[in-house]
């Protein structure tokens, strides 16, 4: 799967133009990345063409229940392009949106890897680059897969970017701790569906705890 391209920029949600400058990227952009960002800034219609209803619903539920994700410094468009080039994938649209708006998602028991304050060079499991490169080096996932978290007791979640559909979305899978060669289960058709499921499960669990007190 090809990484971020100029064509794929047309489906990115538009943020304020000042988001295109700075972010966590301080090094000089190569000419190709800079040209793609400039093209997007000039040509974007400002409309989000992807289906993100489930993603928005998940964030709404968090807000309504007083659950605030850990605040981190969000990446810029350039950072996400570098991320895709480094991992040699095209990320699903809803996951890209999460990166742009939240960086990563940590709230209560939910811990979805992304790009935090340390940027692409972060050295912890919440950094998608570190987690993915480590798993690939250990043979746990293939080159089209990116690790986005664990289920808390050994198995882990990953997106197979080689299965992008016509909406620019890809399924989320769960695999045992010893890797996909030992099996995997498809648990959501897209990242936004996965996120909504996780949020609903979190809120249900918190409500059960409150009722049991």
Detailed description of the structure:
There is one protein chain. The protein has 213 residues and is of the alpha+beta class. It is built from 6 helices and 6 strands, in the order ααααββαββββα. It has helices spanning 31-43, 53-64, 77-87, 93-102, 128-137, 191-211; strands spanning 105-107, 110-112, 145-150, 156-160, 172-175, 185-188. The strands form 2 sheets. Strands 3-4-5-6 form a 4-stranded antiparallel beta sheet. A hairpin with a 2-residue loop joins β1 and β2 (110-112).
- The amount of beta strand, in percent, is 5-15%
Q: Low-confidence parts, pLDDT < 50 over ≥5 residues?
A: 6-30, 33-50
The count of β-strands is 6
Largest sheet: 4 strands, antiparallel
Arrangement of strands in the largest sheet: 3-4-5-6
In percent, how helical is the residue content?
Answer: 25-40%
Structural class: alpha+beta
Oligomer: single chain
**What's the helix-strand series?**
HHHHEEHEEEEH
The shape, in one word, is globular
Count of helical stretches: 6
N- and C-termini, Cα separation: 50 Å
Task: Round the mean pLDDT to the nearest integer and report it.
Answer: 81
Q: Compute the gyration radius: what is it?
A: 17 Å
Structural descriptors:
single chain; about 210 residues; alpha+beta; 6 helices; 6 strands; about 35% helix
Mind sketching the topology for me?
Blueprint: H1 31-43, H2 53-64, H3 77-87, H4 93-102, E1 105-107, E2 110-112, H5 128-137, E3 145-150, E4 156-160, E5 172-175, E6 185-188, H6 191-211
Antiparallel strand pairs: 1-2, 3-4, 4-5, 5-6
